[in-house]
Structure formats: C-alpha cells, structure tokens
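Input sequence (331 aa), recorded before submission:
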Amino acid sequence: MKMRLLAAALLGAFVAATPAVAQNPRLGYVPVDDHPVGQASRHFAKLVEEKTAGRIKIETFGNGVLGSEPEMQASVQAGFIDIMVGPTPNLVGVVPQFMIFDLPFFYKDFAAVDAVMDGPVGEKLFAQLREKTGIVGLAWWDNGFRHMTNAKRAVNTVQDMAGLNIRVIPNPLFIATWTALGTNPTPLPWPELYSALENRAVDAQETPYALIYTARFYEVQSHLAKTGHVYTPFVLLASRKWFGSLSDKDKAVVMEAAKESAAFQRDLSRKAAEQLEGELQAKGFKITQPTPEAMAAMSARVAPVVAEYSKKIGVDLVEQARAAMAASAKP
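Predicted structure, token format:
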C-alpha cells in the first residue's frame, strides 16, 4: 500500500512539474475586431491551426475583453494569458530600449521603420525582452505613424500647438516630447480617452489613423494635423509558459505563422491608413498638412529630447537604427 501511495505521489509530482501544452491558447488585443490588429489576429490563428493540422487552435479576444494592454502584458509575463498584441510604449517600463520607437521625428517612412524592426535592432530588442521578462517576441506588426487631432483649432505650426491639453500614453518620452512642443500633456489610459475628449477634459490626442477612425474620434474632435511625429509598432507577444511548452517543431511553425502574419498585417494596416484619410475627412475632420518648414521647426523643438533619450536608450543602438535606415533609403 505504501509503495502504491509513493508511486502515486511521484507520478503526481512529475505531472505537476511537466508543463501542460495549451492546445487552445488565448490571444488578446484591445482594438475592435475590424481593426487591422483584429483581422490579423484571426489570420495568425488560422495559419497556426492550418500548419498544425488543427492541433493548436488559438482563440482570439478583441476589444479589451482580456484586459487593458498593460494588464495583458502582466498576464502574459505571468503565464495567465498565452498571446497578446500591444504597442511598444507599454514595454518601455521593462525594456527601456523600446523607446527607440518613441523618438519624435526619427522615422522618415515605412521603409525606414521596416529596416529597424526586421534587422539587428529588432532582434536585439526581442532578445532583451525575453531575457528580462521571459516574454517571447513573435513578430513586429504595424500601428502606423501617429497624427495629432484636437477640438479647438487647425494645427499648422508649432505655435498652433501652444497651450493645448493633449492626452498622451503614460510614457516619459511622450510627456517630454509634448512638453517641448508647448502643449500640456496629460497621461491617460486608452479606455478613458474617448470620454475625456467628449467631456473636454483634454483638447487633443495623438494616434494613428486606424485608431482615430475605429475609436470614432471624429465624433468628439474637429481638426487633424498630419504630423506623423512618431511611428509606433504593434508587437505580437507570447508567454514563456505557453511557448516553452511547445515542441521544437511547433515553435518553428508558430514563428513561421507569426512572420507571415506580419506581412499580412502591415500590408492591411498601411493600405487602410491610405483609405482612412479620405473617410476621416468625410466624417467631418478638417485635415491639414504642416509645411516642411513647419515640420522642421517641430523637429528642432524636440531635438534636445531626442538627444537626452538616445543616451537612455543607448547611443550605439540608436546609431545602429540610423545606419539601418540609411541603408534602406532609396537612392
């Protein structure tokens, strides 16, 4: 009897110590389901299911059902949620080098952005994320260039920004940037933004076209300035607990599907942004494009911020990004 009990105890200990393979992992994201993130999440899930002959079926949950992005990030790190999509500014608290995507007026175009994300800089950032948190970076997705909207006046110059109360991501570099531009930055979580704009607690906000449209900011804002001041990626992330439970073959399959999903999502997101400008205008936005001279003046205002935060990010990493962008530039 004692031997049977001992054997049962040893078997139980072995099972408890062996990671369970989650055949139905959960993937969470905050945007609505028709946002490019929602569409690409379902595409990624479909690819994984097809490539594993139905053995791994990823369940997708949009619209913040599994929590805010910081909440999901904590859950992924702890292994309570298997996969998530979120923007890079939320990672700055654990890996400050991710601030390289918050540097204002740093990225000229999508070719420059892709050269950084898909090259050695992107690899180093994912390696640091895994080393410091255990979170596995699967792919870089597109969030787009950020533009400024407000409910008070057209913004064509840095002087037009003066005194506007603008919601920003709770991120020190964003706060420093918008302070340098003469606004009053107010850090607010994403779920609180619409009501803050509606109630005039803040005058302005800054996000990419897709979020401006899907969040229906045209209902509470009237002016949109095409500043393109910051490029923010989305990242597809997995928990160490889930990803580590996979066989080497399935890990390779998931990474392959993630890479394919990145091409799908970026193309979808960038084409959508081109179309959305006209749709936002049709919804009532008065859209303006600051002149190159005005943009240069904005860039000059934030140059000390870029210099300060380049030191915090790591000058070597920033220079690697500049070199990658220069190599990608069309002659």
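Checked by second reader. The radius of gyration is 22 Å.
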